[in-house]
Fold:
Amino acid sequence: MKIKPIGERVVLKPIRAEEKTKSGIYLPKSEDKKEGIVESAGRFKDGQEIPLKVGDRVMYSGYSNEELEVDGEKLIIVDFKDIIAKLED
Structure:
């Protein structure tokens, strides 16, 4: 199933925090990072596309995100205003 958000919202696949560092140190279980991969994006009120594309890696803030599970995969829907950065290599 494909989800297309309505309005100024973005569907993200959250990125899980790593439990082990590259040097082999185990980290205690912590809250998920506030990072995700864009799955789909809506449009601004004036009809323009949100400047994100599928596969972009972003950081987001806020706690009022809508969580859902589609085809066994955890996704979240966030308002575009809660996306604080686009991460690039």
Q: What stands out?
A: Residues 9-15+31-87 form a domain with the 10 Kd Chaperonin, Protein Cpn10; Chain O fold (CATH 2.30.33.40). The radius of gyration is 14 Å.
